[in-house]
Amino acid sequence: MTATTELRRTALYEAHKALGAKLVDFHGWELPIQYESILKEHAAVRNQCGLFDVSHMGQVWVYGPDSLKFLQTINTNDIGKIGPGKAIYSHLPNEKGGVVDDVIVSNMGEDRYLVVVNAATVDKDFVYFQKHTQGLKVEIDNMSDYYGMIAVQGPKAAALVGLDYPKALELPRFGAMMTEVFDQKSAITRTGYTGEDGFEFIVPSEIISRLWDNLLTKGRALGCAPCGLGARDTLRLEAGYLLYGQDIDDDHSSYEAGYGWVVKLDKGDFVGKANFEKQKKEGLKRKLTGLRMTERGVPRPGTPVFVDGKQAGTLCSATFSPTLQAGIGQGYLDRADLKPGAKAELELHGRRVAAETVKMPYYASEDIKNAKA
Which domains does the chain carry? Predict the structure, then answer.
C-alpha cells in the first residue's frame, strides 16, 4: 500500500471510535484490533458472547439455472450436497492445485447462492468467477459494497440472537436463511470462525449501525462485548481455522493445509482436480503442522521450527493461547510424516525452546462438538 492510499472504513467506523477501539490497517481496511483488551475479548467469546464487525468481507451472489454446475466447477467441496437453507465451507482451487481463496457457500434456494469471500481477495475472486462463467447460464453479482456484516460468537450467541430473531435458532450448524432486519432484506448464517456457536448477520450497510447498537445494548446483560481482530485471531487459531494469505494461498494446496476433507474427488470435474489426484497418490512433501510450546514464550509468525536439530519450516500463524495458557502456532514443515507428540524446537529471540506437534484444532467447544450440520 502506498502512503497516498486511504484506508477503507466500514459503516461501523464511528461506532468503533465511540467505543474507544484501537484501529489498525488490515488489508487496506481500518478496523479495530481491540477495544478494552484482547484477553478480555477472547474470554468474552469463550464464556459469554462477542460481537465482531466483519463488514470488510465480501459477498457475491450467484444465480441462474447453471449456478450449481458453475459452483461445482470452481469449488473443491461438493456444493451439490447442500440443499436450500444450508451452507458449506470450501476452497476455490487454481489450475496448479493451490487455493485462490477459502469461502463459505450458502444455498438460498431457487438457484440462488451466496458466497462469502475474504476481504483481501474480493476483486481477485470476482475475476476468477467471471473466468469460469463462459458457456453457462449463470450470473454473478458482487454485492460487497452494499452489505455490512456482524458476527455474533460465543455460548450465549443463540440467546442474544433469539431475542429478536427466534427463527434463526432453528438453523443447524452451517445453516442459512433470508429474513428481514429493520424491514430490509438480509441473510443470517450460523457458521463461525472462533470454535464457538455463532451467527452472522449480512445486512444492507445503511442499517448495520442500528443492528450493532441493538445487539450490543441487549447483549450487555449476557456479558456480550465488542471484539476486535486481535481476539478474532487468537480464537480462530485455537479452533484450527485458516487465515487466507497467511496459512493458505495460491501456492499451498488444501491437502498440504490439512484440509483434505474439503476436496471431493468423486463429485465430478473441477478446477485443478488432476493436481489433487496426483498429490493424493504421491503423498505430501510438506504439511501444515500444529505446534504447542512446552516452555514459556510467545511465538510469532515467521518463527523458525526445528526437528531433530534441523530447520523443518517456519510458523505461518502463532500466538499465546489464552485458553491453553501456552504458546501455539502452525506452519508448513517438510516433515509430513510427523505424528502428534513429536518433539520440536522453536527459535525465539535467538534461543531454541521446546515444543511438540499437536493434532488440530487445539480447542473446540462442546456446542461445536455436538452441533448438527
Answer: 13-57+145-238 (3.30.1360.120), 59-142 (3.30.70.1400), 285-358 (2.40.30.110)
